[in-house]
Write a structure and sequence with these properties.
With 213 residues, this protein is α/β, with parallel strands linked by helices. 25% of the residues lie in helices and 26% in strands. It is built from 6 helices and 10 strands.
Length: 213
């Protein structure tokens, strides 16, 4: 099977409850075989079970790393997009309280295509990138949605050397289909046009050059 991010050949990695996983030797991503992907109806039904109340304090704390990174590195004059905002756009709720303007997009719950014709100073993807059926296509789109000098904030749980995939809770969600090594983030930065990146625990931040394409 070819890697859905970089198109290199992958090797069988793990067979589990939700299907067969393959690991890429080039970008080090781990992908679920597409034959095990949920169809659109079942995927949406799974997301609808999430209790994403914007006023829920634990939920607000969960997204705090992105909110903090945005507010400490950008100003309310910068426009943003919550890409994959889900049923409860808590990032928008918290940033608007701090004076930011942020649009919403979600393919299931906020499928406003006009938003995708704009460009933004920053994009937040909180627990989104592990759901990408076509990560190469999605990262290309995210790059193009950023203005020069823009920032892409992605929160996910990384696969690390000490991770025991067999026991890893993150694979147990059937909508989680692509997992990222920190080296995968480096590959994305180098191959999708970004100028640089950094990783802070569960947060990866991609930086776009100030130069216009």
């Amino acid at each position: 099977m070819k890697c859905s991010l970089c198109q290199a050949e992958t090797k069988a990695f793990y067979q589990g409850k939700h299907g067969e996983y393959f690991k890429c030797g080039q970008c080090f991503g781990i992908s679920l075989s597409p034959e095990y992907f949920l169809d659109r109806r079942d995927e949406k039904a799974r997301y609808e079970t999430h209790n994403n109340d914007v006023f829920d304090v634990p939920y607000q704390k969960f997204v705090f790393p992105i909110v903090d990174a945005v507010t400490t590195s950008l100003s309310p004059e910068n426009t943003g997009l919550d890409f994959g905002c889900g049923t409860g756009p808590v990032i928008q709720h918290l940033l608007e309280k701090k004076g930011f303007s942020i649009d919403l997009y979600d393919p299931f719950f906020r499928n406003n295509q006009s938003v995708l014709t704009k460009t933004f100073d920053f994009i937040a993807c909180c627990e989104v990138i592990e759901h990408f059926y076509q990560p190469a296509k999605e990262f290309e789109r995210l790059f193009n949605l950023l203005k020069p000098g823009g920032k892409l904030f992605c929160m996910t749980d990384f696969y690390r050397a000490e991770t025991q995939f067999k026991n890893w809770y993150y694979k147990n969600d059937p909508t989680h289909v692509f997992f990222y090594d920190e080296r995968t983030i480096s590959f994305i930065s180098d191959n999708f046009g970004f100028a640089n990146y950094y990783i802070d625990n569960r947060l990866a931040v991609f930086l776009k050059s100030n130069e216009k394409n």
